[in-house]
């Protein structure tokens, strides 16, 4: 089958026969040849040059070894925007768009919002792009992630203040109207960490190396000092963590504690409002 990527193969033949999932195959073919989806159709009888064949073979080999397509092409779409991604950041997931939508519904005019553990900047950039009036701050402990987030803010024309910070560590007396986070929430040793795309993603973005709730606990514990009274805290979490996160919020005196379901019907985001002081 690697024969198929030899110079002389046509674009059409490479789409008919591949070891890869057809969608993955098409995306890698476009990437290796610098063609759009439409280009694959209009140039279907074109044969590959030696360079193109070498590029495509390398991409296919990496995909067959499990590397995520988003890392192979360095891009992923999120909330209708194009994001650069590399191994410094988690690949944005469609379920995280729920967190963006809930945040937008709660962001007051010229609202100040904080995204904790921004990674690629997907959430912060989606918010700033949709609501240019908002003052968006995004923090991450990883300098590599902040570099990616900065590029994504610029390429999407979004203004985001970036801060290197271990959770609340580098925040001074900043106060926000809204805090959002998609923190690492997979428990250490969870088998998902050694499966699929997750094997290639930064461990620090996926797992707290503990029970899966330690980052969520820190955020719930620290957020009241940085929220206006009545301000919302919204957190993404794992499929089985909504009860635990609700319990953390309730024990902390948060109001209106509730969870929201993603498109797969999984309770995916939990939040509450800071108590009125
Ligand atoms: N949703 C991701 C997954 O389960 C995990 C993201 C995270 O830990 N914040 O693949």
From TrEMBL:
Its EC number is 2.1.1.297. S-adenosyl-L-methionine binds at residues 117-121, 140, 167, 182. It catalyses: L-glutaminyl-[peptide chain release factor] + S-adenosyl-L-methionine = N(5)-methyl-L-glutaminyl-[peptide chain release factor] + S-adenosyl-L-homocysteine + H(+). Substrate binds at residues 182-185. Keywords: Methyltransferase, S-adenosyl-L-methionine, Transferase. GO terms for molecular function: nucleic acid binding; peptide chain release factor N(5)-glutamine methyltransferase activity. It is an enzyme of class 2 (transferase). GO terms for biological process: methylation. It holds the Pfam family PrmC_N. Residues 22-74 form the Release factor glutamine methyltransferase N-terminal domain. InterPro entries: DNA_methylase_N6_adenine_CS, HemK-like, N5-glutamine_MTase, PrmC_N, RF_methyltr_PrmC, SAM-dependent_MTases_sf, Small_mtfrase_dom. Residues 96-190 form the Methyltransferase small domain. Belongs to the protein N5-glutamine methyltransferase family. PrmC subfamily. Methylates the class 1 translation termination release factors RF1/PrfA and RF2/PrfB on the glutamine residue of the universally conserved GGQ motif. This is Release factor glutamine methyltransferase.
